[in-house]
Amino acid sequence: MSLFKKLFGDPNARVIAKLQPIVEKINALESSFAALTPEALAQKTHELKDRLARGADIDDLLPEAFAAVREAAKRTLGQRHFDVQLVGGMVLHRGEIAEMRTGEGKTLTATLPVYLNALSDKGVHVVTVNDYLAKRDAVWMGQIYHALGMSVGCIQHESAFIYDSHYTHAPGSETEAAHDEQRDTTGAFRVHADYLRPVSRQEAYLADITYGTNNEYGFDYLRDNMVRYTNQMVQRPLHYAIVDEVDSILIDEARTPLIISAPAEESTERYYQFADLVRRLNAVEDYNVDEKMRAANFTESGQDKITAWLGADPWKQLDGQVIYHLEAALKAHALYQAEREYVVKDGEVIIVDEFTGRLMFGRRYSEGLHQAIEAKEGVTIQRESKTLATVTFQNYFRLYKKLAGMTGTAVTEAEEFSKIYGLEVTVIPTNQPMIRQDLSDRVYATEQGKLKAVAREIRERFEKGQPVLVGTISIEKNEQLSTLLARQGIPHELLNAKNHEREAEIIAQAGRPGAVTVATNMAGRGVDIILGGNPPDAEAAAAVRAAGGLLVLGTERHESRRIDNQLRGRSGRQGDPGGTQFYVSMEDDLMRIFGPERMKNLMQKMGLPEDMPIENRMVSRAIEAAQRKVEGHNFDIRKHLLEYDDVLNKHREVFYRKRAEVLAAAEQTAVFSPSLGTGETEGMEKPRDLKDFVFELVESEIEQVVLFHTAAEREEQWNLDEVIEVMRTMLPLNEAVVEQVKSLRREAGGKLADAEARTSIIETLVGFCRQTFEKQEKEINDPVLIREIIKSLMLDAMDNLWIEHLDAMHYLRTGIGLRGYGQRDPLVEYKREAYLLFNELLGGIQKRVAYTLFRAGPAVRLADSSGLLNRSGLRLFAPAKTSGASNAPPSPAFPLTGEVGGGGPGQATKKVGRNEPCHCGSGKKYKKCHGA
Questions:
Q1: Where in the chain is the domain with CATH 3.90.1440.10?
Q2: β-pairing, 240-244 with 402-407?
Q3: Is the Cβ–Cβ distance between 441 and 556 less than 8 Å?
Q4: Alpha helices in 243-392 (DSSP H)
Q5: By mean pLDDT, which of 470-474, 495-499, 695-699, 906-910 is the weakest?
Q6: Looking at the domain that runs over 683-928, which CATH code has it been given?
Q7: I need a labelling partner for 21 at 20 to 30 A (CA). Which of 408, 682, 725, 909 fits?
Q8: CB-based contacts of 270: which residues, under 8 Å, 6+ apart?
Q9: Coil, strand, or helix at residue 296?
C-alpha cells in the first residue's frame, strides 16, 4: 500500500462505502418488485417518467429504477444483478468510468444507468467496439428493456434495427432456441437475426436506447451536418452515452479521426514510379527511420539519388507535389509492413487495427499513404481523397451532456481520463475473491529462444489438460508461433484479423480442457471464456479447475501496461483459478527501442543460452520503466494533439451552428444540431428569416467595398468608379443608381460629412439590392422556391469553402512545427493563423453568396446543389496514427514537409493570374478581390 493511502485512506474505498446505503435501499425493494405482475412492472416506467417530468430529481428515482431493472433481468434472462453491479451502475450514472474485471458482467451492469437515464425521453447511446457486440447486446439486453416498456434500437454499418419480440427471420428451431437460452444465461456468442426488425436509421435513434459502435455514432454526427434538409438528420441532441471498452475508444483510438471524403482527380502513375525509386535506395545510407517517432526521412545521399533519377531536385524547387509522393512512398516502404500494419486480401490493402488485431474494412490511411502502400504491393491503386468532414473521438464524445464508460483496465490511465475528458475512474470490487496467480516475467536473450520456451510450456500444459490462451502482438508473430506449434503436433486454434469471422466462437471455446488458442490483442473481444467450454459443461469445468484453470501466456509485453492487463484479465473470472505469465526477449520491439542500454549490455555479457530465462527484479523494473516511458510519450502526443484539434473543433462548432441555422430558416423549423445542445429546448431555437441571413452578408460585402474604396481623407481621391465596377459584378446597376452614388460624393467635405456620405452610398446600394430582390420575388411568386434557392446558394458556398478550409488547416498544421526553430511557440502561431483562416472562410462565404445571389436564374442556382452526401465515391476512413518530428504538432495523419497552401492533398496549388477571374466565384478579377 502506498504512503498516501496509509495516511489518508483509499479514496476508491471511500466512494464504494458512500454508495453502500443506496445498495441496501435497492435490496429492500426487491421483494415488493418481485410481487408485481408483468403489466405492473412495465407500468413502473410510465410512473417514473411522469415523476421525472413533474420535476423529481433523477437521483431520487435511482433505487426504484435499479430495482425494476434487476427484477426484469431475473424474469427475462434468469440473471440477478450482484450488489457490486449495482455499485458499478451508480458509478456509470454519475458520469464516471467503472473499472470492472473481465467476467464481472459489465454488459448487464450497464442496463441499470441506461434505463434510469432513458426515463428522460432524450435517448441513451450505448457504445460498443464492433457491430457484432452492438447487435448481440441489443437482442440480449433488449429483453430487459422490452419487459419495462422501453424501445431499443441498433445501428450497424449499413443498416439499422429496432428490437421487436415478435419479429422472426424464419420459423424457429430447437437449436436456435437453445442458442438463445445460452446467450441469455451465459452471454454466449451466437446471435441470430430474430427480434431485430430492420428500420430506418432515424427510427433506431428515436428509440429510448440505441446500441452502436463509436465509428457509426461519429459518422452519423458528421453526416447530419452535411444534409440538405433537417428531416435527413438521424441523431437527436446528444444526451447520455455509456462507452464499453472506454480505454480502447477514448485512448487507443483518440489519435485517429473519423473522416468522410470523396475521390480527388489525380493520376496514380506517380505512386508506382516513386514506389520503385524508394525500393532502389540503400536502407543504411539513403534514409533514416525513427521507430520511436514512427517517422522516416531522406538523407542527403538519398535526396541526391532521387534528384539524379528524376533529373530535377524537388527539394530545391520546393515541388510540394513530388515531395509529397516521395515522403508517402518512403513511409510505406520503411514503416509499414504486410501482416503487421496491414494485409493484402483479394487485391486490396486492408488496415489491421493496432490495438485489437481486427481488419478495418473500408478504412484507408490518408494523405497518399494508402495509395503508396498499394503501389508498393503492386495492387490496383484507388484514387486519393478530399476531406469533406472530420472529427476526432475526443471531440465527438465531449459533445454529450453526460458521458460514462466501463472497462476492465482504466486505472493506469486515470490521469488522462480526468484531464482530457473530466472522467474519474472508480474500481469496482469483484463479486468473488480473485485467486488468479500472476507469475513474474521470463526474459530471454533472443526471440527464437523465447518462442521455443513458449512452445515447450504450451506442450506441458496441453498434456496436462489445462487450457492455454496465448497472446501475440501482431499477425506475423501470431502465425510464426502457430507454425512452431504445428511442427510439434500441438492442435490449436488461430485467431487473428484474417479469420475474425469465427472470433467469438474461438474465444468462447478457449476454456475447454486442453484447448490451445493463439490470438492477437484481446481488447474488445466481448465474450467471456467459461471454464469447460461454452455452453457450460460441469464435468469439463471441474477437470479444468483441477488442472489449474485457464493459463494466459503473453509472448511479448505491449507498449501499454493496460493492454497487458486486458490479456491477463481473460483468466480468473468470477473467482475461477488460473494463471498468467509473460515471456519477453531483448529482441522484442519494446525492449529493443525503449529498453535501457545498461540492461541490454548486461544480457550480452552474461552470454546465456538463448532458451534460458532470467527472472530478476531488475529486469521486471526495466520492463515497467520502458512501458511507463512509452505511456508517457503517447499521453503527451494525445494531449498535444487535442490542443491543436481543439482549435479546429471551435471552427467546426461555429460553422455547423451557422449551417444548422440556415437549414432551419429555410424550412421555418426550430434550429437543431447535435452539437448545439443536449435537450429539447437546449438544442432547438426559433429560426431567423432566411432573407435576413442573406442580406446580412450582402450588406456587409457592400459596406466593405465602399469603405475600402472611400478610405482616402479627401473625397476627390475616392474611387467611386471602382465601387460601381465592383457592384456591377454583383448585380445589374441602372444608370439612375450610378448617378445617385456619384452625386453623393458632392455631399462630402469634413470628417462628419464624409462619414454621412459613405453611409448614404452604402444605404443607396443596399436599397437597390433589396428592390432587385423583391422584383425577383414577384417574378418567381413562390416563397418556398425562393427559400430553396437561397438555401442552395448559401449551403453550396458554405460546404465548398468548408472543404477548402479543412485543407488549409491541414497544411497549416503540417508545417507549423518549423516555427519552433525560430523561437516561436508553434501552438500560439497555429492559433493565430487559424483565426485568420477562419475569418477568411467567413469572408469567402460572404463574397460567394453576395456575388452569386443576383447573377444566375433560379434553375442555375438550384442546379448541382444536391449536396455533399450525394457525391459519388463517398468514403469513410480512419487515417494513420501520428508521427513526425519532435517540434511538429501531432497531425491526424502523417505530416508532410515542403507543401503549403490551400490545395487538396497531393494536388499542386495553381497560381492565379492577377487579371484572371478570382477563385472565390465573385466574378471579379483576382487583383480586385482576394488578390487586393
A1: 265-383
A2: parallel
A3: no
A4: 246-247, 269-279, 300-310, 320-334, 369-377
A5: 906-910
A6: 1.10.3060.10
A7: 408
A8: 322, 325
A9: strand
